[in-house]
Description:
By secondary structure, this protein is α+β, with helices and mostly antiparallel strands. It has helices at residues 2-40, 46-57, 64-126, 152-166, 173-181, 190-204, 207-213, and strands spanning 132-135, 140-143, 146-149, 214-217, 221-224, 231-233. The protein has 2 domains: 2-126; 132-233, Arc Repressor Mutant, subunit A (Orthogonal Bundle). It has 7 helices and 6 strands, in the order αααβββααααβββ. A 4-stranded mixed β-sheet has the order 3-2-1-6, covered by helices on one side. Strands 4-5 form a two-stranded antiparallel ribbon. β1 (132-135) and β2 form a beta hairpin.
Amino acid sequence: MPGPITSVTDSLRAGQRAVVWGVVAIAVILALAAGFLFLSLPDADVFNARVERIFVANDALTAPTELRLLEVLAQSGTAFSEVLQSYRVIIFILLIFASALLIAALVLLMLIVVLNRRMSEIQKQGIEVQFLRILRAQNAVMLNDMSFTLTPAAIETLAVLAEARLDDEILSGSQIESVISGKPEVDCDESAGATRIKRLRDALGNQLVAELLVRNIARKGYTLTVAPGRLKVE
């Protein structure tokens, strides 16, 4: 039981760290982009400054038409300055919205990943075998309210594991092969029994059920994770 809890806790911590670093990275990138963009934009008064230079360079223009033209240029400079300033405000607001959307997307993505991991752990812990009934004649297995039709070889392997579990024994691959084939254990390979276990798991189909039902104990062998009182072989 402590193992899955630790795994979920580690996943949550890793997800939180990823979210924090992701938010920091997004903020830094957008800040750099905003700084570069604002530095690249011309100053709002640059047009007015050039119009002013035109006035200074052409102070000999005294005709009414020429003076009117200079006034129009000055008004255009003022209008351009106001438009450029409004563009700066709009760009700043858009950058804020982009930052908020990217950060929200990152947080939601990490939450989905963490929730998926937690749901996987909950599923593994939540499946409890109430009873396991092996029907050799029908090549069928009744697991709680689920029914599986298996091959005769898979049924035989499962029945051997069930009988060993009833005797509270753990069988190695060579022992499984010996019981099924009738050969002496010394003449059986460990890999042959492992192959039978793999075929049994493949026959069960549902990976979650197979991993929970047939357990591999390192350097010992294979057993069923079902209480002997809930097993029945017919």
